[in-house]
Every structure is written in C-alpha cells, then in structure tokens.
C-alpha cells in the first residue's frame, strides 16, 4: 500500500514535485530519511510536493520492477529530469541541489 | 569505505549516490535481485497470508461496502455491509450484475464505467458518485482497485464504497463558512495581513492590496512571501521609530509572549491628516502559529472623538451659562450636578442641592408630583409644571423637562431642565383675565364679531353676529362666509375676503347686503381685517354693524333736508347757546352766510345794535312762553344790510336738550307790497271821491270858462272885460285845482302809465309853492324862490313830479314847524349835466345820521304816530327812480336838511301847434254835432262853433244823437261828433258801439269830451278806441283846432 500527501497553495502555478521514497520497514535509516524528507518538503516545497513512500518489505515486487537495490532511496519522478538520492537525506543542501529545487528559501 | 558483504555484481549496479550512502552507513537494506526471490517469496507468502487474514477481518467488519467484480461486472464477492445495505444475503447477489440489484441507474452507469476503466488501465480509480434517494441525495466515495492476475493482467476489481454524505455536507458547510469568512475579511476596511511565526506574509486581504497599491508598493504579490518584519524594521521616515516596536511586538505575539499589541500613530500624507492603528493578534487555530497584522485607518474615529470632546466642552459651557436651570440627577432622586442658573433659581449652593436631593427640593405636597414621576418612569421623560421649594421657604413654579438616559457604563441618569415660570404664570393669569374680559366684550358687543379661516369659513361668531345674520352659531360655523352673509351679492364679500387673504390689503370696510333665512334683507358694514401669524395671513376677522335702521333714518333725513332746502323760508335750529345747529339753504341765503360754516358765536351776530334790546326781550318771551312770532330786523352778514324778517320761533325738546327752531322770511317785499296796498286802498277811496268831485265841478267850470270866453269875443267896455277876464282866469284856476285833484286820484290806478312830457320845472315849483303858499305863510316860514332863468325842460309826468315836490315841501314845512323858530325854505332850480335839478332846503333841526339810511324805507317815519304814513319819501324815491332820476338827501343834525331831485332832460320838440286865434273865423264851415247832457256845456260849444262859422247841431244824449245822425241827408253828414262820455240813457261808449254797428265809419269822426278821464271804464274804452279825448274844462280854441284840422284827417265820401 502507499499513500500520498497532496497540497495546493497560493503558488499553484509552480511545478508540483512528485517524489517516491523506498524504505525498509522501521529500519533506522529509513525512518530518518522519512523525517528529513518531510522537513525539506515543508521548507522548500510547501504545498507543492507529493510524496509516495514504498516499503520494500511490503511491496517486494515493486522493488524488482523498479530496480531498487538499496533502501532508503529517494526517486524524483517529476518534474523532469528524474534523479535518485540514496541515504538518510540528512544533508539538506545536497538533497535540494540534487532535486533541482529552484530559488531556495525567499 | 566498502562493505565486503556486498557482492561485486551489485556494486556495478549501484549509482554513485547509492554507493556513497552505502559507504556512509545510511542504508538499511541492499537487495540482490538474484537472491531476492526466495527470500522475498517466503517473506511475502507469510506476509500475504497474514495480510489476507487481516484483510478478510477488515473487509468483513468494514463499515464500507466492499465488493469484487469480474470482467463481466458480476459480483464475485460482497461483504456483510453490502448485504445489509442491499437487504439480501450474499448468495443472492453472487453471480449477478449490479443491474440486477435495486440500484439507481444514475449510480450504476458511472460505477460500471469506472470499473471498466480500471480493467483497461489497471490503475486504481476513485470517484464520488451520487445515489439519488428520496429527500437528500446520498454521496458515495467509490474506489475501484485492480486486482492483477499472475500474468499481470487485471482479473477482477475491488470496489470500496463509503458513505460520505455527512462529510460532503460538512465540507460544503465548511466551504461556505470559509467563503463567508474570506468575503468578510476581504470586505473589511482594515488592512489585514497574515504572517507566519517567522514574520513572512502568508496572505493579505483586499484592503491591504488597495492600500499597498495606493502607497506605491511595487510588489505584484502585495508582499505575500516577503518578511514583514524585515520590511518594517528597514522602514525609514517620520514613523520609523514605530517600525521596530511593531516588529518586536509581532515577535512577542508569535512566540506567545504577549497576547495582543496595538499602536496608534499619525501617518499624514501630503494631502490629508491620517492616523492609523496597527493591531497584532495571534491567529488561533490548528497548525503552526500565525499572526494577524491589522492595519486600520482611524482618522475618522479620532476626528469623531475630537469632535465629541469639543461637543462635550460646548455642552459644559451651555450647562454653565444656560438661563434655564439644569441638573443631572438619577431616577432615585439623587442629584449630581446643578448649574448656576438652577442654584440661583432655588437659592441654594450646588453643594446644598446635591445633599438635599430631589426630595429636598420638590414640593412633595404638589399633587402633580406622583403622576409626573410615574410618567417619567413609564415613558422615560416628563414635561410639565411642578412646584419647587426654595431655600427661603417660598415656592417657585417651574416648567420642568426631564428624561432618563443611559450613561456609558449603563448607569441610568436623568437630565432635568428647570425654568422659573412664576413671571410667566403671572402674565398668563393676566392674559387669562384679559381674555375673559375680551370674551365678555365680544359676547356682549352690540356689533357682530366674526372670525374666518383661510378658506373663508366661519370659525367664530358672537351673539350680535348671530342676530344680524338671523342664524345660530351652529348654522354658521364651518360654512363659507359668502354663502352665509351675502347670497345676494357674492362678489362683494368674496372680493374683499380674497384681497385680504392674499395680503393685497390689510383692512377693508365693505357694505354687504345680508339675506336672513326668513327672507328679510339687511345691510351691514363689515370690516375685514387680516389675522397674521408669523407674517402669514391665516384668516380674517372683523366686525359687522347693522346699517339697516341707520340707512332708513339717513334716507328720511336726506328727504327732509332736501325738502327743507327747497323751501323759500329759512329754517334753522338753534341750541341753548344760541348756536346754529342746523340751517337750511334759505336760512343761509337770507342772512348771508354759508350754512356749511355757520357763525360760531351764535345768532347774536345777526342782531344790529339798536335791536339788541328787542332781541333780548324776544328771547325772554320764548323762554317764558315757548314761542314768538313777529317782525324783526337783522343784519345780513354778506353785505351788512339790515333787512326786515318775518320770524316764527318755537321751542322743542330733544333728548333733554332745549332747542329753538326758527322759521324766517325776508319781509322786504311783503312790507312793500302791503304799503302799496294800504296806500292804494286809501288813495282809492280819496281818488274815487275826487274823481266824482272833479266830474261834478268840471261841467260848471267848463260852462263858466266857455261863456266867459264867448263874452270876451265881443266888444266890451274895460270894466266888463276886466270882470270877464277875472271870471275866466279864476275859472281856469278852479279847473287846475280840479285837475290836481284828478292827478291824485290817478295814483290809485296802477295800470295807468305815467304820461311823460316836456315839463318846465320852474313852472312846477311855482305851482306847488302857490299851492302851499297859505300854509307856509301861516307857519311863519320864509319862502325863497331861487329859479334858474334858463332851465331845460325835463321829461316827466308832471303830476307825479308835482307830488314829489309837494312831499318834499310839506316835509320841510313840518320839520321847521316842529322847531318853533322862524324857518327858511329855499327852493332852487338849476340845470344839471343830464337835465335839471330841484333843491328843497330847510332850516329845520336836520336828520340824525343814523336815520339817514332809513328815511327812504317804506313806513319808516320820525313823526309822531298818526301824523305820518312813512310812505312819502319812499314813494317819492320810487317815482324819481322810475323817471331815471335821483332823489338824494344831505343833512347834518342841527343844521337842516337838503333834498335834491335830478331829472333827465326832455328831447327838444317843435312847438306843437300854433293855436288858432280864438276870435277868428274858420276857413271852412264844418258840420258838427255836439252831444252833452249838460245844457250849459252844450250851449257854450254850440255858440262858439257857430260863431266860428260851423253848422252845429246839439243832442242831450246818445239816443238823440243817433236820431240826428241817421236823419242827416246825404252829403249833410256831421264831420265831427263831439260827445260827452257819461250821459244818462245812451252814453258815449254805447254811442260809439252803435256807430260801429252801422259800419259807415262814423265812429272815426267821434271826439270825446269828459270831465272824469280817471274812470276805469273810460280808460278801458279809450284803450280800444283811439279817438281823441278832451278833458273838461277845456279852452274853446282847443275844440276849434280839432274841428278845423280834422277835415284833413278824416275826409268823408
């Protein structure tokens, strides 16, 4: 199962980021990655990001289909170009840079 | 660093980023695709089993409706919730299509579409579908999930239906309320910005945007996304000091350190004064802390507050300086404030008033008090009069206006305004008394008094008015004036009313005819006066006086006055002070004054001084007896002449006043008439007697003279001749005396025209002096004749002039006899400019100057009663005036009197005829008939004419004469018939008539001879017949002249 958080705000014209995070159950690195991703989204992509979290333990067949080899792994599905960031996502700048979030905090 | 546990083939598959994460230990699992399947399968199967159990329990117990549908869209599985919803067991549903179930088509169609889509796309689909039902629609959230088979295709779909009706409803409500809130927020005039905890602007309302635009904020987002704190901390300008304060406050509020912050500050623009308030409040709600910054223009509020302060100050001043007493009190009777006027009115200091309270000030015995308090309690206010107690114990009536109001704190207060009305009360009492007084006056007024409204309808009428109109008040009120008063002439009152109501004139007086309901007509004088209220005419009022009786009286008076003015007699009414109250036209005319302005001093002015005594006697008699009538003499004011008046005086009483009425008539003419009449009567009797005497004497005288003449025709000795001459002369003299007598007799005949001839005044004088010679001599009066040698003849009736001269000489004679001394009478004649004059001058006592004016008045005499008639001079004057001459008198008392008579000259005439010589013989013999009853007369004529060679027959009367005339042979007719007039038998007049009847023209040969020419019958006859009339005694040669000249005049044949 997966769930998504969607929000639309004042800046609706900005592109919505579609992110997917693969995790392995309650494993420590996975939990850290989930928290870090939420913080980043709140800070940089408020109301304009959609996050899908995939537990490889629950959906093992997706792991195979989508070529995921390690967890935690963040995949940017949209906007193009897509990219992957592995790890706990604790280095915010690196993640932001990798995701190509323009402007940063105003 | 590398993990030895990771196989090499995996490392080649990992990206740089993954490898780095792997090296830094941030990776939980590494999956080896080659080894994962068994591991995964095992775990997965176990998990699957476990999850299937969980799922089944979930599905079985879920409140949602869960079904599985195959490709054919038939139910493969339904959960118990669905069974309950469909009210049938699963066995009846399995294998059936949803069309077989009682589900509305509008629901099943989109549902099936949704399912097919999922079969095609293998993607989960969601939708919210409406389930129409009675009442409100139900909403279902429908989620269709593909169930892949092992080959990856979709074998079946799972549909989960959740009833979201309640959520939809609450969402709708929420949306509405959000929209409402947002609308309100946008509509607020305050500028509102919502900040997050860091101070970043999250949202602003419309007012903020407007303000930002107006103040040149160049941000298309109106600051959304910028940090407000930074903006205001950076802000420079006159209010920069406030910036950091506001920023600090926002932080404190955001941190929860303070609840709220507000700051007011001026923010004037170039064009206006502005004030703002910035209010910072936490924006409460779920989620992160937010702060609302409310920025509001409070200029108007501040200005209003300022105005309020000023207004309060004004009210305070008003309170302090008001003429009326003002107190601020509470409904319970306590007093908080009292202004100076209230203190002065009550005689207390403000402190005392406060401590006394209402109970100490109001006269609690005033019966109006409880009702007043009750009214104020009920309605919140009271207005009226009450009695208050003053410090000195007296009561003061005040007009009091009080009302309850709420103070800010919700405390009830009352304001109380007092006005001392004691003065007004006194004035009102007076006014009421005056009003009652006037009301009585109006009610009892004898004149009608009325009031009309602006439409001309009666609003008031007094009893006199009712009586005048013949209607009651009830019949009149509310009706138009013209209709009630003057249906006879609507225009009169209508126009007057219109003029006054329009303001054209303020006051009019009109005369209107009034028709009473009984049909009786009256006339009234109505005044119409405007009633003005604040300059506007709101109606009219006035009085109405019944003129009907007055008019009738006036008419009668006019009639009387006209009648009186038409009288010849003067009519006057005199009051007790002898002033003229009324005089008719004749009165003024007779006494010579303007009746419009009678002499103010009264009728005394008409009384000549010499009649003053008589005047007072008459007044005395009138006082005693009430009337008097008689002759008086009064002065005419216009020319000062004294005239005789016949007067009747009577006394009348009018309204307690004694008035005299006078009727007077100019008696001048009456007196003259009466004088003439009296004299005529007296002279008539004398004349009649003299006429008879003359007639009787004339015949013998005629005979005496004729025979003396005849005898003288013959040769006589001297003695005889002398005797005959004396007989003839004395006969002539006697004839003249008789002739004088005849003259006097002739005065009685008014219709006898005076016979004016050329008269020698000297001869007249001599004649009269001879006449009065004896009397003058015996009276011891010396007579001096002073006659002009050459005096022109005057044109006069000799006998009348003789009478005048006789009068003057007799008057002189009598004046001198009275004086006892020897008198001298001078009679002088002188030629004058127009003719000749006679002066009669005596040496008597003269005439007092006061008599001089009156001596020519008829009946005025200075002689003792019985001696004079008072007619002599009057008659003389009228005779001379009739001759065109003048009779004058000059006299000085004590020095005699001189009368003069001027007479006009007579036209010069040829000597009428040369008298035939008495002794000669006629040239031709004429046949003459002499008719006279006197044989002596007959005989004398016969002898004389025969002697002159004429053929004379005689007859003793007319009858005999006619015989002789008819007996005459042709060519032997009488050329002249000389006949007496008065004869026995057929007289001269009848002889004349007979001769006329014969028609032979013999009457033209008739000559009458009479001794009495003054007889009226003779006069009448002579006026018809122009025959010559000869008066006896006559000289014989006179007859001869006629007879011998007549042949020319009257040839026969």
What's the layout of helices and strands?
The complex is a heterodimer of chains A (106) and B (1053).
Chain A: E1 4-5, E2 17-23, H1 28-44, E3 49-55, H2 60-66, E4 70-71, E5 73-78, E6 83-86, H3 92-99
Parallel strand pairs in A: 2-3
Antiparallel strand pairs in A: 1-3, 2-5, 5-6
Chain B: H1 8-13, H2 16-23, E1 29-30, H3 33-61, E2 65-69, E3 75-78, H4 80-86, H5 90-93, H6 105-121, E4 125-131, E5 138-148, E6 154-163, H7 165-187, E7 191-196, E8 201-204, H8 206-214, H9 228-234, H10 242-255, E9 261-266, E10 275-283, E11 290-297, H11 299-321, E12 325-329, E13 335-338, H12 340-346, H13 350-361, H14 369-379, E14 381-389, E15 395-406, E16 412-420, H15 422-444, E17 448-453, E18 458-461, H16 463-469, H17 473-476, H18 481-485, H19 490-501, E19 507-515, E20 521-533, E21 536-546, H20 548-566, E22 570-574, E23 580-583, H21 585-591, H22 612-625, E24 627-635, E25 642-654, E26 657-666, H23 668-713, H24 718-746, E27 757-759, H25 761-778, E28 781-786, E29 794-796, H26 798-818, E30 823-831, E31 835-842, H27 849-852, H28 872-882, E32 886-891, E33 897-904, E34 927-931, H29 935-947, E35 951-955, H30 958-967, E36 976-980, H31 988-998, E37 1006-1010, H32 1016-1024, E38 1029-1031, H33 1036-1049
Parallel strand pairs in B: 28-30, 34-35, 34-36, 36-37, 37-38
Antiparallel strand pairs in B: 2-3, 2-6, 4-5, 5-6, 7-8, 7-11, 9-10, 10-11, 12-13, 12-16, 14-15, 15-16, 17-18, 17-21, 19-20, 20-21, 22-23, 22-26, 24-25, 25-26, 27-29, 30-31, 31-33, 32-33
Helix pairs in contact in B: 9-10, 23-24, 23-29, 25-26, 26-28, 30-31
